[in-house]
Amino acid sequence: xxxxxxxxxxxxxxxxxxxxxxxxxxxxxxxxxxxxxxxxxxxxxxxxxxxxxxxxxxxxxxxxxxxxxxxxxxxxxxxxxxxxxxxxxxxxxxxxxxxxxxxxxxxxxxxxxxxxxxxxxxxxxxxxxxxxxxxxxxxxxxxxxxxxxxxxxxxxxxxxxxxxxxxxxxxxxxxxxxxxxxxxxxxxxxxxxxxxxxxxxxxxxxxxxxxxxxxxxxxxxxxxxxxxxxxxxxxxxxxxxxxxxxxxxxxxxxxxxxxxxxxxx
Length: 265
Hints:
Strand order of the largest sheet: 4-3-5-6
Structural class: alpha+beta
Number of domains: 2
Number of helices: 8
Radius of gyration: 18 Å
CATH class of the largest domain: Mainly Alpha
Distance between the termini: 29 Å
Strand content: 5-15%
Shape: globular
CATH architecture of the largest domain: Up-down Bundle
C-alpha cells in the first residue's frame, strides 16, 4: 500500500477527458436498452424516475456549457478537493449550475448525443486553464472536468440500482478519479494523520486529528472498495449499514467515520 499523499493530487487533462467521455458513452449505451417500463421505474433520488435521472445525467456535462456562459472569474480561489463538500443534499454533482431541459426530450439518446457534442466542442475550443465559477470557488476547466467524472460514476451507480439487471461498465480512469477526489475531500473535511483510509487500488489518505502515524502498521485503519466508498461519501450508503454488511473494515478507536459521512458540508 503506498503512503498517504501529502501534495495536491494532479490529474492529467487528456486522460480525464477520455475517462469522462468513455463513462458517458457507457451510460448512453445502457440507456438505449431501456424499455418504457424501465424508464418509468423509481430511483433512490427522491421522486426522480429513471427517465428523469437519465436527463439529469446529461446536465452533468451541460454544467460546463452553463458555467462557460458566466463571466470568467478574475482569479482562482477554489481548490478541487473542496468541491465534494459543496454539493447538494442528494450529492447532485452539478448543484445549481445546471437545470434539466424545460421540456423533457422524447429521444433520450439523441439528447445525450447533443450534450456530448457540446461538451466536446467546449473542451476543444477552451484552454484547460479557463476559470469557471463553481460552488467551490473559481476552478480551472481542466479541474472541473474531474468533477464530471465523479458525477457520472455516482449516477451510473444510481441507474444500476434502479433497474434490476442493468449492467453499466465503469471506465477505470473515471472510477479512479471519483474515488481519489472523494478521498481527498475527506482529508480536507477531517484533517489529521491518526487514521488511514485505504480504497485499493486507487487511493489512500490520512485524516482525523490525533497522533500522527509515521511507520509500521497504522493503529487506525479503514478499508473498503471504490464503489462502497463512493456510496458512503455521497450518502447512498450509511456507515452503519456498510459495517453491518461487511462492506467496510474499521479498526482502532479513531476509525469510526460515521460522523464524517456523507461528505457534503
